[in-house]
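Continuing the batch. This is chain 6 of the set; chains 1 through 5 are on the previous pages. Same settings as before, nothing changed between runs. Recording input and output for traceability.
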Amino acid sequence: MKSRVGIALLLLAALGLCGCASSSDSRNGFRMLRAVVVERGFESPGQGMDLQESGIWYLVLEALDGEASARFRFFVTQQQYFRFPEGASVELTLVDYTLRDIRLSR
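Output for chain 6:
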């Protein structure tokens, strides 16, 4: 009887660990990466955009994400666009691969 209870407890513990390991949390969390601006661009107001909008500014950045090299394209403000020229070394703050902050590297 004690062995059956022990086996049942072990099975419950193993199932609990498997459930933790296979959680379906799609959040990738908070990251800080160093990157280099490789391209800057502007998309003028097009079809479907409000006539009062001035267009979309973006930066293309290359960063090392762990062992891999990653290329990101983020929409930025006009002020950020002019602040970070091509070749600028920057620090990115990402939350779930969404740009939260960009600043010049020290």
